[in-house]
TrEMBL record, chain A:
One matching Pfam family: PFOR_II
Highest taxon listed in the record's lineage: Bacteria
GO molecular function annotations of the record: oxidoreductase activity
Protein name: 2-oxoglutarate ferredoxin oxidoreductase subunit alpha
Keyword tRNA-binding: no
Ranges in coiled-coil conformation: none
TrEMBL record, chain B:
Source organism (scientific name): Desulfoscipio geothermicus DSM 3669
GO terms assigned for molecular function: oxidoreductase activity, acting on the aldehyde or oxo group of donors
Keyword annotations of the record: Oxidoreductase
Limits of the Pyruvate/ketoisovalerate oxidoreductase catalytic domain: 13-172
Protein name: 2-oxoglutarate ferredoxin oxidoreductase subunit gamma
Lineage: Bacteria, Bacillati, Bacillota, Clostridia, Eubacteriales
Length: 380, 181
């Protein structure tokens, strides 16, 4: 049963992810429930069968993503949800999806790690894993929401980007946003923009499965539609045939990266507050952006020219924008519920153009606004 | 920053405090306000410390956690020992005397009510102690309207338990009524 949601209602972040996935056209979920992401699986198990979709609880997260990849190859928009321990298990198949260009969305509601850590406590310790968790140079898109409404919007966007660029997209949540309930008004069904994967314009006999179009994305034939081709994690030529030819292998790897890098204008999304004349920039993402926003407001109240920059697309890294911020501001502060994973990347891009510092906590609690305020006062 | 009300509902896992927080946050939206609800709990299904936090405001809510609650509900000794000192100056604390026996250093507006034992004896099920607490808390603090509270309650409980829950709400309301007069 589809229902039109037009009124303000109290909704949980994980619930918003499930709603966003369904609105984006996701009709397949396979996974293994894990705190703090379980509500997503629960809701999908309830809703998907009623929409003609499929929900499968697999034996583990390895199989979860494997089934998602299979469903996507057969033509369904597919998504799985997990947390750190499950995300670790998914890395091998994540690389397969990147190499074989299979659209899929992986939701990681981060909790304290490493290992099983503190299952019910928030963290942002998987930022680098989301970028580099699977082996080999691989393309990936990572989005990070700060509110319940944004969890909905970015889930829709994750599905759309996965389909458009044939790439795995990771929605990197954290326990705070996943479990937070707040007031939301969701768009009506018809108002949600959805994107479908590019489909072949030639008959099966003429189809070359990995020959890209001008945007470097090859049209994708769904299995069962009469197009026969080979899908492999091995380096392959345009026909999908495995190859050890150095030139072909490099050509493939470079195209996989270029198809993302040439569309940064479309992929990078961010948000800002009080940035116009900011001399101190707080760069924050996910739930940490919320105490950051309060701290920046308080700093403004004291007459300090502080601003908030919030990347919604964490990866690819918004290098151009961060470089601009470094030219404008004398200090950049990066609060994170990890020991400075994203700050490292900021430092790499900023170099000595501005002072970069962090507010880093790994105690399983959300960073407090006062901690960020103190960091601002330190660099005034 | 505009006027906002910050609530913390604290006790033991299994007492239904997270659900109680959800109901208050839902009721606030029905009253036309903004609200956020967050929670902190251990991995246990029952037992272990549990707390739900709710912020109600006319404005956008940035930070979703509560440091110094204006309203603090305490339903276990452990929660009292841990959180009583956090109460905002001028705040209201509601204590379930069924489970909180030692109360050193009380200062401010404190209401001590036999919430869990009343749920057990007058409503017939201790399981609805959270709803008895909600009735008492809203009667004392007026953080949401009674009508919105009842509507939110009915929207968030299992079908077939409406009568039991409405009775619990009324019982909590009356429990507070007695100490207010």
């Amino acid at each position: 049963m589809s229902q039109v949601i037009e009124m303000a209602r109290l909704m949980q972040g994980n619930e918003a992810v499930a709603e966003g996935a369904l609105a984006a056209g996701v009709r397949f979920f396979a996974g293994y429930p894990i705190t703090p992401s379980t509500e997503i699986a629960e809701i999908m198990a309830d809703r998907l069968p009623r929409l003609g979709g499929k929900f499968i609880q697999m034996e583990d997260e390895i199989a979860g993503l494997a089934a998602v990849i299979g469903a996507s190859l057969a033509g369904l928009k597919a998504l799985t949800a997990t947390s750190g321990p499950g995300f670790s298990l998914m890395q091998e198949n994540l690389g397969f999806a990147a190499m074989a260009e299979v659209p899929c969305v992986i939701v990681n509601v981060q909790r304290s790690g490493p290992s099983t850590g503190m299952p019910t406590s928030p963290a942002q310790g998987d930022v680098m894993q989301a970028r580099w968790g699977t082996h080999g140079d691989h393309p990936v898109i990572v989005l990070s929401p700060s509110s319940v409404r944004e969890a909905y919007d970015l889930t829709v966007r994750a599905v759309n980007l996965a389909e458009k660029y044939r790439v795995p997209v990771i929605l990197l949540m954290d326990e705070v946003v996943g479990h937070l309930r707040e007031k939301v008004v969701l768009p009506a069904r018809g108002e949600v923009e959805t994107v479908d994967r590019p489909s072949p314009k030639v008959p099966p006999g003429e189809y070359v499965p990995f020959r890209p179009e001008d945007n470097l994305v090859p049209p994708m034939a769904n299995f069962g539609e009469g197009y026969r081709y080979h899908v492999t994690g091995l380096a392959h030529d345009e026909k999908g045939t495995p190859t050890n030819n150095p030139a072909l292998a490099e050509q493939l790897l470079l195209r996989l990266h270029d198809k993302i890098n040439m569309h940064l204008d479309d992929i990078l999304l961010d948000d800002a507050k009080f940035l116009e004349d900011a001399e101190i920039v707080v760069l924050a993402y996910g739930s940490t952006a919320r105490p950051a926003r309060r701290a920046v407001k308080e700093a403004r109240g004291r007459g300090i020219k502080a601003g908030l920059y919030r990347p919604l697309t964490l990866w690819p890294f918004p290098a151009k924008k961060v470089r601009e911020l470094a030219e404008q501001a004398h200090s950049i502060i990066v609060p994170e519920m990890n020991l400075g994973q994203y700050r490292l990347e900021v430092e790499r891009v900023v170099r000595d153009r501005a002072r970069v510092s962090g507010v880093n906590r790994v105690h399983g609690e959300l960073i407090e606004p006062e901690e960020i305020t103190a960091a601002i006062l330190e660099v005034v | 920053m505009g006027k906002s009300m910050e609530l913390r509902l604290s006790g033991t896992g299994g007492q239904g405090l997270i659900l109680a927080g959800i109901i208050i946050a839902d009721a606030a939206i029905r009253d036309g306000k903004n609200s956020v609800q967050s929670q902190s709990y251990g991995p246990e299904a029952r037992g272990g410390a549990s707390r739900a936090e709710v912020i109600i405001s006319d404005e956008e809510i940035d930070y979703p956690r509560v440091a110094h609650p204006n309203v603090l509900l305490v339903m276990s000794q452990e929660a009292y020992d841990k959180f009583a000192a956090d109460l905002d100056r001028g705040g209201v604390m509601i204590i379930d005397s069924t489970y909180v026996q030692e109360r050193p250093g009380i200062d401010g507006a404190v209401y001590t009510l036999p919430i869990s034992s009343t749920a057990r004896e007058q409503v017939g099920r201790e399981m609805v102690a959270n709803v008895v607490a909600l009735g008492a808390m809203v009667r004392i603090t007026g953080v949401v309207s009674r009508r919105a509270l009842a509507d939110a309650l009915l929207a968030r409980i299992p079908r077939g338990t409406e009568e039991l829950n409405l009775k619990a709400l009324e019982t909590g309301w009356q429990l507070a009524e007695k100490v207010l007069h």
